[in-house]
Amino acid sequence: MEAQSKAAAALVKKIAGLHRVISKLPSLSPSPEVDALFTALVATCVPPIPVDVATLGAKARRMRGELVRLCADAEARLEAQCSDALAALDHPLRHVRIFPYYENYVALTDLEHTLLVRHAPDRLAAPVRVAFVGSGSLPLSSLLLAARHMPGAVVDSFDRCGDANDRARRLLLRGDDGGVAARMSFRTADVEGLTHELAAYDVVFLAASVGVAEAEQKTRVIAHLGEHMADGAALVVRSAPAASCAPLWGGAGSKSWPCTTPTTTW
Length: 266
Hints:
The protein is an alpha/beta fold. It contains 7 helices and 6 strands; from the N terminus they run ααααβαβαββαββ. Strands 3-2-1-4-5-6 form a 6-stranded mixed sheet, sandwiched between helices. Strand 5 and strand 6 form a beta hairpin.
């Protein structure tokens, strides 16, 4: 136990050092320095050394919150740059593998579809309408779900950023997409402002980036979706801090959620 505590303290110290350097960067746009720092951060956080955030002091918790926001900002910039590069090509969707974390998205969407098939009602294994909330400027999750797992579904992607949606649309305007573009749309909206529209979807996916910096916001969004989704619809929630995704069942007639309380760790 003592050895584990020392390892956890050393981990927090190392992450704090990376935070100090990252927070002083003049820009989080992709560059050799930015890439190296975030690669080091990922490598530091991957080893299985559990750190219960609830036991951290106020300073360490603030640092962690700031680091989460910095990571989200850097990822959004990376996705925007990659989306712009792809849009300049004749057949953007043939080249999406240039994104460094493409295989991560493939694995994640494979896992989510497997969970739906295993745990959801049979009709949700081949849904008619799907929403993805927090799709961003490089909507790999929406594209992979539509192309690989839900070839008969209409997939509507929502993001609060109009520029991100413009970038996403451009990817589907050039070249052969196998009919995917006809089944996809990108809408600029805050999910907490949507009500009756949510009842139209069989499955709603909630990106980890939604409410990533504030657990209260994520909880509020989940409750809002549960209130306005159709009875029996599935809500798939991605959780970046817990590195997990959990299927939840929503609908106006189902106000209480299953007990899903993963421990928040680094």
